[in-house]
Write a structure and sequence with these properties.
By secondary structure, the chain is mainly α. 74% of the residues lie in helices and 0% in strands. The radius of gyration is 20 Å and the shape is elongated.
């Protein structure tokens, strides 16, 4: 059970860290000149090919969260419900 919680936390971080980094950087990009902005944007070239990986991580998060929910729903239950 503890391992599932840790796995859910790690997978959540994998999906949120890139978005958080992008969000924190946007304030610096807004103040840039047009040409400098487009030069910086070139570092993202090729990322669209890696989007499928984020989809797999999102599916893994949902799956692990479902297992955690099922495991938590059975904790402390001494007799089956009728």
């Amino acid at each position: 059970m503890h391992d599932l919680k840790i796995l859910a936390l790690v997978l959540g971080a994998l999906i949120l860290v890139p978005s958080g980094a992008h969000l924190l950087e946007i304030t610096h990009k807004i103040s840039m000149e047009r040409d400098a902005y487009f030069a910086v944007q070139r570092i993202y070239t090729g990322w669209e090919r890696r989007q499928w990986e984020y989809g797999h991580v999102a599916i893994a998060i949902v799956t692990v969260a479902a297992f955690v929910a099922i495991a938590l729903s059975t904790v402390g239950r001494s007799t089956p419900r009728s």
